[in-house]
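Hi R.,

Here's the chain you asked about this morning:
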Amino acid sequence: VQLQASGGGSVQPGGSLRLSCAASGFTFSSGWMYWLRQPPGKELEWVSSISTRGDLTQYAMSVKGRFTASRDNAKNTLYLQMDSLKPEDSALYYCARTSTGSQRGHGTQVTVSS
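And here is the predicted structure, written out as tokens:
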């Protein structure tokens, strides 16, 4: 199982980023997928869930209305569109096969600062 997140970077408050997660080694289309993040010095936290076909999504209250999860099962890729970014969104972002992040890959760093 491999999950490789990418697309992170540094952005000013109010800006946008789009994260991608390339999946391999398992049947990507058969299960829900998750985004989690770990802010500096804090614990891992759940951000978003997306159903197998992408028709159901769930978000943490802190990102609801600003983040949008999607997936392309033909490309085995998960996405997270992040808009109206805030400094408190700064974190290492992971994609995962479980909501607890127990099966997650390498993360991608997002830094929001002016």
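One quick note: Residues 1 and 39 are 25 Å apart (CA to CA).

Cheers,
M.
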